């Protein structure tokens, strides 16, 4: 039959060491494959990786830039991890980001005379609600009608992206700008920078807050226990008296809301204008594919409240470092995108080896 | 609005519907194989992009379009092999394995394209895409002649695959074993049939068809590769296989309806109808979500879908 010489044996309770060891090994092996990609570009892999890490962590400015990318990634990673924990397969964080930023743009360009302490909450709260509502629709469809959530959340991204493209190319277009974008948001709506001269801004603190909230929900609350129970087995959770529909919809609201804030973060912390379609199909020019990166981060972080921030930081290094690799050694900049897939594949093998032992069977 | 109703418009619209339906048809037929055997293949979007990118590179470097299609099919098959290894051999959660495969294809296709043929900042290279082939005799038929029988070869190939898939599904031992595996793998395994081999084969077929579907984007629809150029069509296939209730013949209906909506928005935009074309572009996606809502309640999923099979358990 299939595999006559080997036998697979389950490890019921892998030790903490095993659980850390294999994921770390898989990332190292993935970086080995990455070395082949770098070598294919005609660059010594060690030099390539040097540029990656030096470009991302080599100076105070580089670290600030990496943390500036880490901010939205932590938000989308947390949003997706929360949803995946109860098996709400939310791969629509990209669209939820964009709709959050869109609604925030409306408030941040309409109420220009307000002071900062009033205007910043006035853009964050609607941004949260917009993302929450956009994610709640597929969750309700899934819970009530059994509509596949992967497809609805993903196709929702395209719907909202085209809608935003319509807005910024049409009624919202800033007539003084050369490319399609909305007029600049009010000065008072812009997130204040944390340190003078560095791009790191208020959003960083907001992202840390949501990461801690995610930790607290999963580890300390009854709701967190219910979320995990629904993820393990929704039928059994139902028998235990958990309202599965309510868990799915409330998780979707928080997940979409956090992704919406990631969009507000990019609007008020980075771009200051609402933007249209990105170069890569299915991404926004404002969201830069960070919504999809959130899916990667959630899976790499094992949906764990400790793992997700680590994975988000790793991803921030990869994105920031890839730019340096291109600048310094002309390694094509989609390097980090190629690495995402390679890492996930290696990680799945690593997860298998964490929970199963392969034994040679003597015939 | 009257110009919308002219004969020329109608011909353009119908012909384009068939063309737009083609990649959807290929991808959805493949997905039907995978899901009928009990594996949800979310890797289809990434597989399409790999086919689009590597197929294009091969066609560009050799100057032979059919060689490009062959390479796209082969690369698609390798992606199917990857999906099968993750989901069947390792028994990873099928959602996670599929998303992993899609990430793999999406990222790598873009990197290799930049590496081999189109460095950043340069002018992206183009090829001469497939031309329509008029079928002698049949092309004289009114309406059908200039639409159905004046199409690039891949369109005919995709249409031909429907009855072939139908015969495999319902008239062969392999097909019956495959459907049984998707319902009750344990019973099939007990009967001494290698279900691992069946699932591997089905995922290889799904990957191959998705690879060819991807080549359609870079070699029929346009003359170049663009990152993410499949525009979510892989996910549309996953919706349409549910709409079609996993039946090859109903897949034709689903793909044609989707192709029709897609063609409608394209032709209306081209006509310069006084309606924002960005809103028209949303239609195929909204439409897919709506038909998914309509059929969700009565969809009869293969019973073993999403459940990895392991002998020991």
Report on this model:
- The complex is a heterodimer of chains A (363) and B (313).
- With 363 residues, chain A is an all-alpha fold.
- Chain A contains 13 helices and two strands.
- Chain A has a two-stranded antiparallel sheet with strand order 1-2.
- The longest helix of chain A is centred in the middle third of the chain and has 30 residues.
- Chain A starts with 5 loop residues before the first strand and ends with a strand.
- Chain B is built from twelve helices and two strands.
- Chain B has a two-stranded antiparallel ribbon.
- In chain B, helix 1 packs across helix 10, helix 7 packs across helix 9 and helix 10 packs across helix 11.
- The radius of gyration of chain B is 20 Å and the shape is globular.
- The interface between A and B is large, with 60 and 59 residues.
